[in-house]
């Protein structure tokens, strides 16, 4: 009777052997996938460190560098007008302009303008930096819209 009990008990555990083998392979696959995710996490962490340094450098550059010859709204308006004129000239045939002949005015009638004294006004540095930043952002948008032109 004791031998039949051992045989029955062994046969009942045999049916679980395949299930445990599948469970073991599943855990092995899970462990490998988790290691891949861990590597992706480490790569992202390194990228974030490098990119944050890059952004910090750009921010410090923006605070330290002044653009005395930064474009203004008028220069953007003239750029857009020139661009539109170029597009119109490319699409329509060029007509020869008609010139009027002007008679020269006598020198005695020419009035020389009196120069105005230069105005001294206080420059709000924070406002100037903010305006320059907007102008630079507008330039970057224009460049992104037309990367092939490179203007």
TrEMBL record:
Signal peptide: none annotated. InterPro entries: DASH_Dam1 (IPR013962). It comes from the Eukaryota. The keyword Membrane does not apply. It is found in: Chromosome, Centromere, Kinetochore; Cytoplasm, Cytoskeleton, Spindle; Nucleus. The keyword Cytoplasm applies. It holds the Pfam family DASH_Dam1. Keywords: Centromere, Chromosome, Chromosome partition, Cytoplasm, Cytoskeleton, Kinetochore, Microtubule, Nucleus. Belongs to the DASH complex DAM1 family. This is DASH complex subunit DAM1.
């Amino acid at each position: 009777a004791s031998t039949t009990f051992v045989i029955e008990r062994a046969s009942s555990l045999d049916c679980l052997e395949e299930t445990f083998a599948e469970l073991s392979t599943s855990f092995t696959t899970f462990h490998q996938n988790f290691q891949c995710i861990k590597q992706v996490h480490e790569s992202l962490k390194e990228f974030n460190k490098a990119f944050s340094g890059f952004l910090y450098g750009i921010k410090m550059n923006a605070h330290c560098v002044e653009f005395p010859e930064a474009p203004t709204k008028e220069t953007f308006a003239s750029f857009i007008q020139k661009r539109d004129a170029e597009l119109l000239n490319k699409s329509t045939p060029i007509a020869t302009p008609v010139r009027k002949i002007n008679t020269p005015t006598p020198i005695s009638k020419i009035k020389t303008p009196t120069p105005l004294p230069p105005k001294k006004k206080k420059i709000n540095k924070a406002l100037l930096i903010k305006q320059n930043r907007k102008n630079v952002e507008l330039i970057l948008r224009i460049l992104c819209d037309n990367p092939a032109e490179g203007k």
